[in-house]
Structure formats: structure tokens, C-alpha cells
């Protein structure tokens, strides 16, 4: 199982200037992946900007948006943004995509929080056409350079439609950020949808685990704040599943490996850069 680490772009009032150095430290420490979490209506760093900064500060580590809220973006703009980050990184980006839940994240006029399933299905067609170099805006020009690729996608979500979407368009599935004990059915659903769609092999299965080593209580408070719009029961499960310290982090690795997960991304609960090496020492 690959072990990744998230960038702290989602931490409330994070100092954005640490993102490149955090990414470089993660690569030096030996993590396989750098991830981001994306929201609009929260005082952090845009996930696409964090990924672009990480792409410029690193050379080999994989990049993953886990997950980006595709439905809040105009699709041509997002497709070009994603292709640009992928190009800057030398083809290291995987687009983790979801449809979003919180109404306040939908800030673009005409793209409100309704009809999200139909919207993402239409948007996926647009992403593909942009990445294939087809003209945009009614003219003759495409939006991406020749040689741009179809950026691989993995999908979040828990509805039957989300699993079907993953099996139709994606390379895999990424589970919600919660305790592994709650996720076996999610991964089984992803595998089943993959098989029913006639796909060869198995889907790439990814998971997220929050962690904090230094100020664990501050980390828990930060995650609770981030998930404050969520139902209290779910928020409590997420906060309770934070890996606080080395032993808890190692236990999370074992639990997710036992579920057959291909990639586990530890998402920081604080923006302390020293947590990078602490986590690496515990789980790599």
C-alpha cells in the first residue's frame, strides 16, 4: 500500500507560503503522494493552487486532489486548470473529484447546489473534450497544449450513481475521511461497480486518514471546525478517527491495508511542517 501525505491547504487561516516547502519536505521524506482537500467557503488555500505550488516544488511525488469539488467550477476552466497542473508536474496529477454537499461552496452564478449528478455527468464529457484538444468557446482553438493527456480521475461519493460514475469514467475510488471500520462496504461497492461495468482488473482504491502528532487537541478542534456543517454524528466519527501519534498512525496503516486499499493519504490536522518528518518516521 502506498502512503501519502496531504498538504495543509484546508487548515483554517493557514500561512499559504508554507505550501511549497511542505511539499518539498514530503518528497524528501519518501511519501508516495501529496494530497489536497478542497472547499471554497473556508479560509484556506484553493486546492488547485496548492497542487500547482507543489508541482513546482517537487519532481517525483504523485499529486492527488482528494477530493476536488468539480461541480462548483465551470467545466472548461477546471479542465484547463487541471491539465495545466498536470503538465507543470510532468504528468504526476490524479484528479480526485466529487460533487460537493455544502451549499455555501457554490459561489458561481448559475452553478448552485442542485442537480449535481446530472451536472457532473455533463462536465465529465467536457473535461474529456478539453483534454483531447477539441475547440472551446465557439472558435477554432483548443484550451490545452498538444501533448496534454486525459488526466486520470478517481471518484468520491457513496450513492449508487457515484459508483457507476467511477466505473464508467474513472481509474478508481476514494473513500470518505472516516474510520476504516465504516468503509468496507464502500470499497466492496466500488469493486462491484467496476466488475459490473466490464472493466478489467480492479479499481484503484484510496483512503484518507487525518493525523496529528504534536498538539493533538488543536488538531481535533481544527478538524471539527472544518466539518462543522456536517451532521454531528458524522463529525464526531471523523474527529474520533484522527490518528493522534505514531501508534495510532501505524494502526491506521494496518486497518486500511487489511481492507485492500492501494493508497492511504494522511491528511494533516494542523499546519505544523515538522509533522511531515514525524509521520514519515512512524509509517514509512
UniProtKB/TrEMBL annotation:
Pfam families registered for this protein in UniProt: Bac_luciferase
Xref: InterPro entries: Luciferase-like_dom, Luciferase-like_sf, SsuD_RutA_monooxygenase
Sequence intervals crossing the membrane: none
Entry keywords, A to Z: Flavoprotein, FMN, Monooxygenase, Oxidoreductase
Gene3D superfamilies registered for this protein in UniProt: Luciferase-like domain
Organism: Paractinoplanes deccanensis
Official protein name in the record: Luciferase
Start and end residues of each Luciferase-like domain: 16-241
Source organism superkingdom: Bacteria
Amino acid at each position: 500500500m502506498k502512503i501519502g501525505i496531504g498538504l495543509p491547504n484546508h487548515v483554517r487561516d493557514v500561512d499559504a507560503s508554507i505550501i511549497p516547502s511542505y511539499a518539498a519536505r514530503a518528497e524528501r521524506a519518501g511519501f508516495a503522494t501529496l494530497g489536497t482537500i478542497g472547499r471554497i467557503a473556508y479560509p484556506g488555500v484553493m486546492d488547485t493552487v496548492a497542487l500547482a505550488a507543489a508541482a513546482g516544488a517537487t519532481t517525483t511525488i504523485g499529486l492527488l486532489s482528494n477530493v476536488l469539488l468539480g461541480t462548483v467550477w465551470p467545466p472548461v476552466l477546471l479542465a484547463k486548470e487541471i491539465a495545466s497542473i498536470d503538465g507543470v508536474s510532468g504528468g504526476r496529477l490524479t484528479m480526485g473529484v466529487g460533487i460537493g454537499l455544502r451549499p455555501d461552496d457554490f459561489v458561481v452564478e448559475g452553478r448552485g447546489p442542485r442537480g449535481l449528478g446530472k451536472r457532473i455527468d455533463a462536465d465529465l464529457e467536457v473535461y474529456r473534450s478539453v483534454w483531447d484538444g477539441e475547440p472551446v468557446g465557439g472558435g477554432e482553438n483548443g484550451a490545452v497544449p498538444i501533448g496534454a493527456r486525459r488526466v486520470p480521475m478517481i471518484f468520491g461519493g457513496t450513492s449508487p450513481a457515484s459508483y457507476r460514475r467511477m466505473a464508467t469514467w474513472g481509474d478508481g475510488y476514494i473513500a470518505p475521511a472516516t474510520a476504516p471500520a465504516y468503509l468496507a462496504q464502500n470499497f466492496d461497492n466500488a469493486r462491484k461497480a467496476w466488475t459490473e461495468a466490464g472493466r478489467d482488473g480492479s479499481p484503484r482504491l484510496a483512503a484518507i486518514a487525518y493525523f496529528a502528532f504534536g498538539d493533538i487537541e488543536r488538531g481535533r478542534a481544527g478538524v471539527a471546525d472544518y466539518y462543522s456543517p456536517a451532521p454531528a454524528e458524522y463529525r464526531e466519527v471523523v474527529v474520533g478517527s484522527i490518528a493522534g501519534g505514531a501508534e495510532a498512525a501505524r494502526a491506521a496503516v494496518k486497518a486500511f491495508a487489511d481492507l485492500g486499499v492501494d493508497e492511504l493519504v494522511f491528511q494533516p490536522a494542523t499546519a505544523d511542517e515538522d509533522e511531515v518528518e514525524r509521520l514519515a518516521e512512524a509509517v514509512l
